[in-house]
Design brief:
There is one protein chain. The chain is α+β, with helices and mostly antiparallel strands. It folds into three domains: 80 residues, Winged helix-like DNA-binding domain superfamily/Winged helix DNA-binding domain (Arc Repressor Mutant, subunit A); 158 residues, GAF domain (Beta-Lactamase, 2-Layer Sandwich), CATH 3.30.450; 95 residues, 2-Layer Sandwich (Enolase-like, domain 1), CATH 3.30.390.60. Helix content is 47%, strand content 17%. The protein has 13 helices and ten strands. A five-stranded antiparallel sheet has the order 7-3-10-9-8. The radius of gyration is 26 Å and the shape is elongated.
């Protein structure tokens, strides 16, 4: 939920921004004395303390321990993100280095997503996540079968958005390279150029005329193809750099750590979180209790949509503690989403 910029007066806004900056860097509650010393706010610590007490009553700050200073609440982070956060969050040198990471970038979607996640984790020191492109409207660009020993075939499928998927067929009896080549050509004729989301509905399970001698292999290959396509349409999520988030002080609490590990295992939750944030005009920020899933309410997400040929196709982002450097995360996610979009668009054009 966004809050109006006048929900806090100017002094309270300055104090909140200072507390967010300090707590993000140190992971230690911030006291009024520390604020007065570091930021030269022009008022006594007692005045700052009174302002902080009022902000706590309003819900923007919380006090972890009786004698400790204050830390931002989820509501405080939201106000900071919506009204106080400035940019840019990356230096020009950091931006250039990140872009250089795409030099000699792979021409396969999976490898490119893996590279992007690795660059994003390195840049932010948070866990990075990415959904694979929505393939429902992509088409089958290439199908091939190759023999692996007498009774195994490798089925490979390349889609128009650059995804490459494969499956191994275990045949009931040995076959030959010649039969395999015929079968490969036949599958290309029948399914090449079809949209991914239409493959399941096509009644092409029976071998065409003139191919009855390879009917059993054909049926097996079609079943494998439809299984691959079904998995493509279901969507999946990549995760990289999980060690970064596990090393954060917040997750020394075993209860919080167990919830986080459960979220890592339930990739479905990560996928749904990213998918829900797609189509935002700019980066989407989900803070703590704004997460739909209880397992993730100790975390924040910063995500951005990547596009292929102008069409929203997937999302990338970072996952970290609510004590996140949001400014840096937003800058990094937006930069890499833009570069990923350009590279995937080039791949799709072929």
């Amino acid at each position: 939920m966004a809050y109006a910029s006048d929900a806090l007066n100017e002094r309270k806004q300055i104090i909140l921004k200072a507390i967010v900056n300090d707590y993000t860097s140190t992971a230690e509650p911030v006291s009024s004395e520390m604020l007065a010393y570091r930021y030269r706010l022009g008022v006594k610590p007692a005045t700052i303390r009174n302002e902080m007490a009022e902000m706590s009553e309003l819900g923007y700050l919380r006090q972890p321990h009786t004698s400790a200073g204050r830390v931002p609440s989820d509501m405080g982070y939201r106000f900071y993100v919506d009204w106080l956060m400035s940019g840019p969050g990356l230096s020009s040198a950091e931006e250039a280095k990140a872009v250089e990471g795409y030099a000699n970038a792979p021409a396969e979607t999976d490898a490119l997503l893996q590279l992007t996640c690795r660059l994003l984790s390195t840049l932010t020191h948070y866990a990075s996540i990415a959904t694979e492109p929505a393939t429902n409207t992509a088409t089958i660009r290439h199908i091939s079968l190759s023999l692996m020993g007498g009774r195994n075939m490798l089925l490979a499928v390349v889609t128009s958005d650059g995804r490459v998927e494969h499956s191994i067929l275990d045949l009931p009896s040995p076959t030959t390279h010649r039969r395999t080549a015929r079968l490969s050509n036949l599958l290309s004729e029948q399914f090449g150029g079809l949209r991914i989301d239409s493959v399941q509905s096509h009644n092409l399970d029976s071998a065409p005329e003139g191919a009855t001698d390879i009917a059993s292999e054909y049926k097996m290959a079609v079943r494998a193809l439809k299984r691959l396509v079904r998995e493509m349409c279901q969507g999946s999520v990549r995760l990289d750099g999980a060690g970064h988030i596990l090393s954060q002080p917040e997750f020394k609490d075993i209860r919080k750590l167990e919830a986080l590990l459960l979220a890592f295992e339930e990739r479905r939750l990560l996928y749904q979180t990213l998918n829900a944030a797609m189509n935002e005009a700019r980066s989407a920020i989900i803070i703590g209790n704004e997460n739909a899933y209880p397992e993730m309410r100790e975390c924040s997400f910063v995500t951005a949509t990547y596009r292929i040929g102008g069409r929203a196709s997937g999302a990338i982002g970072v996952m970290g503690p609510t004590r996140m450097n949001y400014r840096r995360a937003v800058a990094a996610v937006n930069l890499l989403a833009q570069n990923l979009s350009e590279l995937l668009t080039t791949i799709s054009i072929g």
